[in-house]
Amino acid sequence: MKISWFSQIISPEIGAYLAGYSNKDKSVAKLDDLFATGLCLDDGETKVVMISFDLLGLDAEFIQRLRRQCGEILGVPESAVLCTCTHTHTGPESRYNLGSREHFNLEYLAKLEGLILDAVKNLPPFKECNVNFYSKNCDANTNRHFLTRDNCGSFLPHRREMRQLAEEGIADKELGCLFFMDAATGDPLYVIGNYAAHPLAGHAPGLGGRRISADYPGAFRRKITENTGADAMFVSGAAGDLVPIDDELGKDAIEQMGTILSKNTIDGLIDSMRNPARFRMKDVKLGSCLKTFTVPLRNCVINNPDRLPPEFRGSNEVTLEIQCVSIGDTCFVGVPGELCNELGLEIKWHSPFRKAWIAYCSTAYFSYLCPGNFLVSGGYEPGAQRITARSGLKLVSTAVDAMYELREKVYPSQGDEKYPDCLELPLVNIPPNR
Fold first, then answer.
1. Which positions ≥6 away from 100 have C-beta within 8 Å?
2. Does residue 327 belong to any structural domain of this protein?
3. Whole-prediction pTM value?
């Protein structure tokens, strides 16, 4: 495997309107820079590229154009270019959104597009590497969609005194990691970390909400590089209803979250290096695919088309994309918005890959994507959802179908049975009547 990578500053000018909270949040300072981090991989036959933006989200039209252009530069299909957003709320307004459309920063987006295309055109020389994977539990997030005993949804950011009760909620605490190790020296060259929690650690009242910042994904990358020398990318998981345990508490909270995740990642790096038989992937091949699904829009959205980006107006239904990029026996599943972690877990459990990780806001920004019962219980996330209740199930089904098709394409099954049904099971002595 060969890799090449880039890191491009994408901070807006101070004074730009910020996304994520009030549409009147105008930046007055900069805490740290925003970055677009890109990694291009080449297995000798196939190339893929992953680009992670310190932005709240990007619209489908922009993403599709950028994928096509990057694909043309690299000579790869559009499906092989995965764009994802860390979802920081202290970056510029980079997507069309109800209530903030007058601050939709088209000038910024044009500049952003040029910066990324230049970076892809001028990739540095590729380096030979081995690839390790790792996964561990990291207790750094909590579910903010709290359900009472009578199945009514409460939004915990508005009920902070109820935070202790949130421990009952479902929360995907998996920290997924890929480590790209120099084939000659064995040292880490590049690290990808995947975790699900809104980057809201630093969004404190007042100044904290008006400072340009990558939030904890930026702190995570910086701490990985400071401690290992490797460059790093952060990919947000299914964080639609997950937040850091200590969120909205300012700069110290950013550093705390970045420290927790980076320490756990380095812990995984140590284990993977000392146990290569378990964690070093063999025969690492690359693959990618795009799969669409069509679902109905909610009546409240059909009757209020301003809630939709222009490219999705004029119909009672919408066609969205799932994108999969596989690296060996791991797969990133790109979703079109703020996927709630319950649906993300469902996708993971049905994966034919050894590990599957969600790539947040990858194929579009189409608001929240919730389990069906959320629209019964109510609350903030389902209140913002644009598609009907059963649509989440179709999203999961499409993602699982895409992974199975991609797994079979990259690693064709031998014999009549298709993976994973053809796995040889160990012989186990099972006592009778059990």
1. 17, 19, 23, 93
2. yes
3. 0.94
